[in-house]
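hiii so um. not sure if this is the right channel but i have a protein structure encoded as tokens and i wanna go backwards to a sequence. like what aa goes where. can anyone help
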């Protein structure tokens, strides 16, 4: 949304559009819902260069999949507990052009129809996985699958001088 910074950033991204296959810009669900017209326009410019987006920290399935598709959202991440609560307990469904009822197990396919992968994150225990099995999710992340850990010594031994105290991956 910074009008003075964005033109130079966009120029850099234009010159390096080969990064589009490797860079995904992520924003919170709240930021997506409250983005200004300036932010939406700038996101559109990045999308036109081939960059894609991820929506994180989804707390409600009140999502407009058509709007997400239009600006290049390719990933939506919600905590496993949120997916369970919203889809299986409350029966909430994302907004689409469809008027028919959609079963919980079909929600992942619905996201796919709009070119979006639904990812369950913050999966901390097997109970959560079992609760989510009927949603036919293709992706999950969290401590159950592996806790954050230091990058192996060999990664920074031969490469640029990375200080080990900074060489940690987020979960």
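sure thing!! here u go:
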């Amino acid at each position: 949304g910074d009008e003075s910074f964005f033109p130079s950033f966009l120029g850099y991204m234009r010159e390096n559009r080969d990064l589009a296959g490797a860079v995904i810009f992520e924003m919170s669900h709240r930021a997506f819902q409250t983005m200004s017209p300036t932010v939406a326009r700038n996101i559109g410019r990045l999308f036109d260069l081939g960059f894609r987006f991820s929506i994180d920290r989804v707390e409600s399935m009140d999502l407009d999949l058509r709007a997400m598709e239009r600006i290049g959202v390719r990933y939506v991440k919600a905590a496993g507990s949120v997916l369970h609560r919203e889809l299986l307990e409350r029966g909430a469904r994302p907004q689409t052009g469809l008027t028919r009822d959609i079963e919980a197990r079909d929600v992942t396919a619905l996201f796919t129809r709009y070119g979006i992968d639904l990812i369950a994150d913050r999966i901390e225990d097997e109970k959560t996985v079992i609760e989510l099995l009927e949603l036919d999710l293709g992706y999950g992340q969290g401590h159950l699958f592996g806790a954050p850990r230091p990058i192996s010594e060999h990664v920074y031994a031969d490469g640029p001088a990375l200080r080990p105290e900074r060489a940690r991956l987020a979960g």
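oh and The first helix runs from residue 6 to 15.
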